[in-house]
Amino acid sequence: MMPYERILIVGYGLLGQEIHRQLSGKATIFLSDISLDNANKIDFKNERDSFALINRLKPDLVINTAAMSDVDGCEYHYDDAFSANVSIPQNIVLANINKAFIFDFMQISTDYIFDGRIPSGNAYNEYSKPAPQSVYGLTKHCAECIIKELMPNHYIIRTAWLFGKGRDTFIDKIVKSDMKLIQTFDQKGNCTYTKHLTSALVRLIQDGKMGTFNITNYGAEDRETFLRYVIDKAKKKIEIRPYSERELDDEMLAKRPKNSSMESIYPWIVLPRWQDAMDEYLKEEYGI
Length: 288
Hints:
This protein is of the alpha/beta class. It has helices spanning 14-23, 47-57, 71-76, 78-97, 135-150, 170-176, 194-207, 223-233, 245-250, 274-286; strands at residues 6-10, 28-32, 61-64, 104-110, 154-159, 162-163, 181-184, 188-189, 192-193, 211-214, 221-222, 239-242. The protein has one domain (6-167, 191-220, 262-272): 3-Layer(aba) Sandwich (Rossmann fold), CATH 3.40.50.
């Protein structure tokens, strides 16, 4: 049973769209994103407008999927990254504190809050110590700290490398394009199908389980393995080449965690294997 009657979704990207699909019919849903042409279109980086909208809509739950997730863009546009990744969730929290309206809050976070220095084969859980190595990771971690300190009724959802319906990701680009070369980072971690992630979020909400949760599809691999799996399924001939150290320096790319693999201490948070998730998506979207 859905405990919330009125839910505000902030941000309407890949995950926001999937949450909207799965919650529709279960509650009254309000959408707010600067890309949408509706009555709730505001910039949540503006504190006064955030308060006013929340006070008008009176949601029981606010879900924030809005973020600046361009890791390299965040590195060189710090003010924009801070505004998107810290100011937006902070303004939502302040609306609750200032009694614009009392509500619960769900924040989407990331594996980039970790430094990636754990040995291969290990994974970060919900109690692992954050140590972000990039501006993107730092701003997302700051948002977590604000929420934990000031918003008792919260869900913080850490996830990684999303794919799904609503926007082209690495899977769609491989299937649709005639590219001959993909350059990738030497990283190990998880990937996550938004359909499976959202199903887990709905279960958390229905069960009333609040707190911090690491939620990804089961299993961690290096990025080349993920890419190669899709290339083989799509029967493409694409070379995969990791960035060299010189290329990373020359292009001034942001530092990525070497191994940001995540797992959950909660046995009831188990999503399908990443291979099964990719198979399901490829079959649903492309008949592969």
